[in-house]
User: Which sequence fits this backbone?
């Protein structure tokens, strides 16, 4: 077994091992272990990305049992890209959480309030509890979540994907609940959604399994293609399975109108958790959706209605999410609604998948497009948007959470002029805004460009309208979020009065190096814009066309 | 229509539907929990009728036993709590049930039509399974699939259970250290009648033995870590309610036991990424996993006592 194949297994198992071991450690040791594990995951992901970039799909039959009996781990271009983004974002956020333990939630400790208050209000025999900032339970849960994410990205098996999604969903719910008592209702609601989504996915998988007799993703895709080629093929089970799977995953991605759970969950989560939820956790469901639509179900013409419905919901998401984001007065809910809007972009490609003819450009002079060029362009555009969103949204949520912890509020009006005191935070917010709007140079721009060109090639001009409208909207709501923070002088006669900073002298972490974390992610958002072409190349590895 | 179906199955099916109604319709939590308990028993019988002894045992242990213990605890400790959206009465009270019923009927009809029409193909792994059973060192095929051929799924599932317990512990008092999350729960259980006391002390060893039997039977027959863990957890719950002093033992051993199975499983998996486990490794993993599952379920039970009731309102 080569080293790279070992990395394939280890990148899932090492964070899980660290998660289990951290349960036994104290809080300082957990932080150290968390940072070491982040470095290890980065180190283990690199050979996988390098090998896949060189054009080779990696496969590891676990235990030596080939599919259909055993489970195969498989890394192709799509897996490697999501794995790499998760490793980068995960490592940066882990460092942030280690540097600022207070950002990991609130813990309930046996309190020792003053005697008088105790006599008046509490007659329990048990000691009453008080809430303190910081929760070391973050580490086992987040490392377990990371392991689940990697398991989803590398899985070559449908049932195993379900187990990975369960691991991700459960730990994500628990991470939200670390936000203290106020976050519990949001976490409970998220739990119901996550479990319902997983169940729908599982029923879909069972239907596919009953038709194909295998759980392996590639094998079942081949069998379904074979079935579709027959004349009297009855694909009702596959279509129903795709409906259920898409519905379940749309719940988990929070596609409009299934998005209401996301706002309280993402905005009430602790500062170090919201970026993970928004940047990584919903990407797991998106990844599975792309996997199933492209690899398992192939371009079946029977799926046209479903594809158009989902794309319509995507367009609606861009509209509804943007309008709702514009109406928010607080930073974290605004960013959460921006996630709802951005989710819409990832569903626009579905009608293109079923209709990849380059008819619109045929006959035009100077255009020769390969077979699959539209598919490749649409997929790499979508993946670029998703990866860019991961980096940018992690940075944005980190900065917003940091500001909230600094000033004790995330009301935008109260944070006017915060850029003067904390230029690095507001700078990173600006950089991630560039990425989310999709201004040139950012990964978001490459994504929109690729998506738009393939839409034109396939004659789907409606998508241009959606993309342009979405871009204008996102510029509007992000300006609304960032511009007040940048106000430097009192030129509009209103006095700049920031709320009393909560920074206690003994808490230097709020002004220290932790602010570098969102800045690094913001910088990456813009710099990765150069990788658009490379990304298309990597996605060709193991592509289904 | 009833030609091929034995009367017993019809009765069982009707009973299942009735117990579902008994679970959904009552408004008191206690009645709902009791309905679910009955549903658990009937589901177990249905699985037995279908010939899936493994699933029946798991259903009886986890679905019926442990879940019922949790639910009864909740319904006894907080009998009536209106749901959060009960305050805002909907304008048309009939709308919700009607929409719900219509959706359920549509779903059932569509799913049944597709399911019956689809040409089901048999699992493609049957031949490979029989051919490879010799490699595993176990005789029962389900155990072979769970622990050898698809061990990776089982590993992730046991991690899910471990992390559930970790999450539940994290919501209690404190965040690190052996007592974290358990401090409120280690207070003595409510008093119970003396006869019950006596009964529990008689039955606990028998149940313990049954749990161990389920664990070791798994290699040749139905049974295994999950079922056995559930039974062992039931023993712990019974002993806790009978005031057997388990507090110190729990504080010092709950966390190590909870993670030991997963840790050993991962280490073994890293060493055997492309080769099957040997039988001794398999047995070690199975025993540790069982203990871990019992510890995890027991932790969930212990943490039911809501710590928020003892917090300072700020």
Assistant:
């Amino acid at each position: 077994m080569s080293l790279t194949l070992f990395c394939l297994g280890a990148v899932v198992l090492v964070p899980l091992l660290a998660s289990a071991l951290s349960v036994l450690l104290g809080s300082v040791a957990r932080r150290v272990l968390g940072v070491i594990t982040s470095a290890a995951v980065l180190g283990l992901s690199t050979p996988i990305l390098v090998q896949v970039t060189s054009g080779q799909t990696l496969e590891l039959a676990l235990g030596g049992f080939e599919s259909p009996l055993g489970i195969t781990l498989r890394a192709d271009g799509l897996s490697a890209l999501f794995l790499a983004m998760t490793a980068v974002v995960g490592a940066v956020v882990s460092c942030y959480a280690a540097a600022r333990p207070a950002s990991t939630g609130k813990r309930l400790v046996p309190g020792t309030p003053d005697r008088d208050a105790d006599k008046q209000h509490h007659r329990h025999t048990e000691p009453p509890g008080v809430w303190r900032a910081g929760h070391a339970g973050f580490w086992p849960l987040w490392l377990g979540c990371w392991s689940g994410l990697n398991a989803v990205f590398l899985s070559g098996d449908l049932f195993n994907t379900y187990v990975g999604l369960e691991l991700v969903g459960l730990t994500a719910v628990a991470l939200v609940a670390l936000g203290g008592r106020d976050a519990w209702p949001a976490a409970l609601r998220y739990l119901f959604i996550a479990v319902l989504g997983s169940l729908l996915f599982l029923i879909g998988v069972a239907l596919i399994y009953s038709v194909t007799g295998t759980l392996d993703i590639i094998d079942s895709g081949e069998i379904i293609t074979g079935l579709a080629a027959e004349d009297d093929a009855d694909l009702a089970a596959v279509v129903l399975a795709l409906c259920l799977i898409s519905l379940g995953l749309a719940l988990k991605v929070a596609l409009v109108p299934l998005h209401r759970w996301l706002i309280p969950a993402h905005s009430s989560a602790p500062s170090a958790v919201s970026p993970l939820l928004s940047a990584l956790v919903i990407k797991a469901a998106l990844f599975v959706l792309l996997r199933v639509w492209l690899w398992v179900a192939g371009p079946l013409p029977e799926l046209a209605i479903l594809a158009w419905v989902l794309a319509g919901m995507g367009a609606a998401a861009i509209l509804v999410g943007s309008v709702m984001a514009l109406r928010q007065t607080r930073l974290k809910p605004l960013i959460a609604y921006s996630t709802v809007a951005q989710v819409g972009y990832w569903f626009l490609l579905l009608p293109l998948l079923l209709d990849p003819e380059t008819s619109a450009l045929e006959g035009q002079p100077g255009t020769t497009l390969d077979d699959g060029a539209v598919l490749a362009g649409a997929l790499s555009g979508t993946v670029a948007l998703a990866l860019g969103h991961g980096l940018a949204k992690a940075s944005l949520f980190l900065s917003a959470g940091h500001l909230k912890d600094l000033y004790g509020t995330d009301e935008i009006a109260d944070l006017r002029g915060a850029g003067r005191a904390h230029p690095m935070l507001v700078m990173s917010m600006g950089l991630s805004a560039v990425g989310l709007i999709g201004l040139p140079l950012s990964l978001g721009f490459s994504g929109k460009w690729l998506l738009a060109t393939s839409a034109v090639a396939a004659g789907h001009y409606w998508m241009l309208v959606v993309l342009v409208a979405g871009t204008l909207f996102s510029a509007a709501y992000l300006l609304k979020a960032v511009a007040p923070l940048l106000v430097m002088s009192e030129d509009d006669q209103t006095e700049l009065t920031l709320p009393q900073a909560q920074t206690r002298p003994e808490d230097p972490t709020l002004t220290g190096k932790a602010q570098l974390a969102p800045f690094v992610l913001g910088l990456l958002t813009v710099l990765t814009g150069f990788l658009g072409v490379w990304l298309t190349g990597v996605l060709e590895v193991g592509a289904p066309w | 229509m009833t030609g091929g179906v034995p009367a017993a199955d019809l009765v069982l099916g009707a009973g299942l539907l009735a117990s579902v109604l008994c679970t959904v319709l009552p408004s008191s939590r206690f009645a709902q929990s009791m309905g679910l308990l009955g549903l658990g028993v009937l589901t177990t019988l249905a699985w037995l009728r279908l010939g899936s002894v493994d699933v029946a045992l798991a259903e009886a242990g986890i679905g019926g036993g442990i879940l019922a213990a949790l639910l009864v605890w909740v319904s006894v400790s907080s009998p009536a709590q209106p749901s959060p959206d009960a305050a805002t009465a909907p304008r048309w009270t009939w709308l919700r049930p009607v929409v719900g019923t219509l959706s359920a009927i549509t779903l059932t009809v569509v799913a049944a039509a597709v399911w019956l029409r689809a040409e089901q193909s048999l699992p493609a792994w049957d031949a490979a399974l029989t051919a490879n059973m010799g490699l595993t060192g176990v005789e029962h095929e389900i155990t072979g699939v769970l622990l050898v051929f698809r061990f990776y799924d089982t590993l992730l599932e046991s991690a899910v259970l471990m992390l559930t317990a970790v999450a539940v512990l994290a919501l209690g008092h404190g965040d690190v250290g052996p007592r974290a999350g358990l401090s409120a729960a280690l207070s003595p259980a409510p008093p119970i009648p003396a006869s019950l006391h006596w009964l529990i002390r008689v039955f606990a060893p028998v149940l313990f033995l049954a749990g161990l039997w389920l664990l070791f039977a798994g290699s040749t027959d139905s049974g295994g870590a999950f079922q056995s863990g559930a039974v062992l957890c039931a023993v712990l719950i019974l002993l806790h309610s009978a005031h057997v002093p388990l507090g110190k033992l729990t504080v010092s051993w709950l966390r190590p036991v909870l993670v030991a199975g997963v840790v050993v499983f991962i280490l073994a998996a890293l060493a055997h990424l492309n080769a099957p486990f040997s039988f001794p490794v398999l047995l070690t993993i199975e025993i540790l996993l069982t203990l871990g599952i019992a510890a995890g379920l027991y932790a969930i039970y212990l943490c039911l006592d809501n710590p928020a009731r003892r917090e300072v309102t700020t």
Notes: Residues 129-307 of chain B form one domain.
